[in-house]
Specification:
The chain has 311 residues and is an alpha/beta fold. The strands form two sheets. The protein has an eight-stranded parallel sheet. Strands 9-10-11-12 form a four-stranded antiparallel sheet. The chain has eleven helices and twelve strands. The two termini are 32 Å apart. The protein has two domains: 229 residues, Arginase, Chain A (3-Layer(aba) Sandwich), CATH 3.40.800; 67 residues, no CATH class. It is globular.
Length: 311
């Protein structure tokens, strides 16, 4: 079950329904839709604080400015640590995400940054958990390991090119296409770890008389729903689909374990240290065939090594 929550101005509520309802009719038994007032956004705090007790996954689309503040407050009220992914043109220029990261330092294990644009970030060297816009354009499948282990996926609509989301702030002609954003949402939807998809940045709806932005948002939500309901990555992998690989590495005292789902062709790696009980769900992390090959050649990728640091 996925619960889709909309915290929008009253003028946008009917518009989003016109796009959402026809597409989601096929998943009537697998989703719920709720509208809440912008002033009631902080009433959602318990949903995000008690995420490990949830039997459903949640999406949130809001035109307000307080969503990430609410989520950061929720995370600081509990003891679990999570991984998050951010999709936007520049995290450093995003005051909502900046507030979130500054106030949840003790609650975040790994932060992934996807689709940032070099000319906006000013950071020449990408970090292990960065996957910039150009890299995504070249091979969007590289995003899967980043997204699949993230409890929360944040999407600022400025990650999309202006032509696809003219209601965003700014007018940047470069960015993700809606189709690419759909693919990223699909990857997150498949994940057995992801619990939340949060979309924000609907800052200037008056600039979008044709409702292209709302159309793009509903498509993103639909592909997230489709993946979760129809194409989920089953975990643990059924024995008849699982293929195990063991690597003897001079860099580690023990062997390194990988496995592949032969049906979905998705790869996983077992962190070679026993994690604390509250981190046990990260004992196996999503990887790629390229990362498996690099590890087999005694060149463990930095992205994996950073996961080792959580032990």
């Amino acid at each position: 079950m996925i619960i889709h929550t909309f915290a929008l101005s009253k003028s946008l509520t009917q518009q989003i329904d016109q796009h959402f309802d026809p597409l989601f009719e096929i998943y009537a038994a697998q989703h719920q839709k709720h509208h809440i007032d912008l002033e009631a956004l902080f009433d959602q705090t318990e949903v995000y604080r008690r995420f490990q007790e949830q039997n459903a996954r949640h999406t949130l689309f809001t035109s307000g400015k307080g969503a990430l503040r609410m989520i950061s407050q929720a995370l600081t009220l509990q003891d679990h640590k999570i991984s998050v992914s951010y999709i936007g043109e520049s995290a450093a220029r995003d005051p909502q995400f900046t507030y979130f990261t500054e106030n949840t330092k003790e609650n975040i294990l790994i932060k992934n940054f996807l689709a940032e644009q070099l000319h906006l970030t000013g950071e020449i060297n990408a970090l292990p958990h960065d996957l910039r816009l150009g890299a995504l354009h070249q091979d969007i499948a590289r995003a899967r390991p980043h997204l699949a282990d993230s409890t929360i996926l944040f999407i600022n609509l400025n990650a999309l090119r202006w032509a696809d989301a003219p209601a965003q702030s700014g007018n940047n002609p470069s960015g993700l296409t809606t189709e690419e954003a759909n693919q990223l949402a699909y990857m997150a939807g498949q994940s057995h770890k992801n619990q939340f998809l949060v979309l924000y940045g609907l800052d200037h709806p008056h600039r979008d008389p044709h409702q292209l932005t709302l159309n793009s948002v509903v498509q993103i939500l639909w592909y997230y729903q489709y993946a979760a309901a129809t194409k989920p990555q089953i975990w643990p992998i059924p024995e008849d689909r699982r293929q195990d690989f063991t690597i003897e590495s001079s860099m580690m005292s023990g062997n390194l374990q990988f496995c592949k789902d032969r049906l979905t062709n998705q790869w996983f790696h077992k962190i070679p240290f026993k994690l604390a009980p509250e981190l046990a769900h990260h004992q196996w992390i999503t990887t790629s065939y390229d990362e498996y090959q690099a590890t087999a050649n005694e060149d463990i990728p930095h992205r994996i090594l950073e996961w080792y640091d959580i032990a």
